[in-house]
Model the fold of this input.
Amino acid sequence: MKRFFIFIFSLVIISHQIKSQINGRDGKLLAPTPPMGWMSWNFFADKINEKDLMEMADAMLSSGMAKAGYNYIFIDDGWQGGRDNKNNMIADPQKFPSGIKALAKYMHDRGLKLGIYSDAAQLTCAGYTASLGFEEQDAKTFANWDIDYLKYDYCNAPEDVETAKARYKKMADALRKSGREIAMGICEWGPRKPWLWGAEVGGQLWRTTYDIRDKWKRKTTETWGDGILDILDINAGLHAYAGPGHWNDADMLIAGLYGKKGPSGDGGGTGCTDVEYQTQFSLWAMMNSPLYATNDLRRMNEATRKILLNEEIIELNQDALGKQAVRKIHNDSINVFVKPLANGDVALAILNRSDAAQTFSINFSALGLPDKYELRDLWLHKKTGSGTQWKGSIAPHETKVFRLLMQEK
Ligand code: GAL
Done:
């Protein structure tokens, strides 16, 4: 009995410590819901500049995305111009002639936030100046520039988990001491299982996989290059580790890329259909992954707009309960995900993984939902039925998403 109490007591202490690591200064969570925005890497790579980023922010506002919740512009790798004679990091003066502080002001003046990128080694993945050994100095620089978020990568760093934990903690502590609230996204891609220690060292989110490519699924002949299904199959099992303030990050949304060049086009990323992009968006929302678009927001077609701006799907992602969906049924043709919501409703997503249309029928009781529900289809934006089951046809690679509103016990 005594041992049991000691065990419970230790759990309370550990959870308190984790909480204090991911909170901001006033004790509130830094990322109470998954961050949303636009990230520069998967389409532009390091070919970024302040003009494009400002235009992207303008497009985020004029397209309605900002109103729908996308409020971050995340600068990824390639902004760095080395260090000055006092070892302060500087931005590439050609790409960012007005400097990062001015860019942050541009974002803040429009109600947006600015994220930046560095790496826990001497050089980043693309070979630019990184932060190892300069954590406190760089954190102060970022704070001085009014940065709101740091994506902290792990290229060129040792493989063992203890070093990774120490390097991430060092930067998280430095950010905490920097004088500004800056959230940190861990990006070591999954090999060291960051979902087990990410919150403890001070990260608000952690990538669970390698980079997403613009494809549905990796072919058996391909040795690398993960698509939507490959990433889904890793991230879906990690629901226990996500919750308000600490999220599993399944990498960027590829909607609207259509196989255009850029990092998403490497590794067999020849493009997806709109149905496949709709599936990614639905499932990333259900899994509480951060939602960051990476397509050129200035040139979006109607189909991409409809996907990224589906506010009923976004609501699932941003739901205050912060529960990542659980995959209740998993076979080669059908996957079913269930996500409880703060107001007592339940979100249900049904994915047809196969290459042929499927007629599928499901009793809600088999999902642990014993009641009668009214069903709202969140892609058709209307009520489509009620009762204790759903039966219908799903196109290849399509995901149906429903909100189940309880009718009676
Ligand atoms: C990778 C990371 C990508 C991008 C890239 C930049 O390690 O997973 O999302 O940040 O580095 O070089």
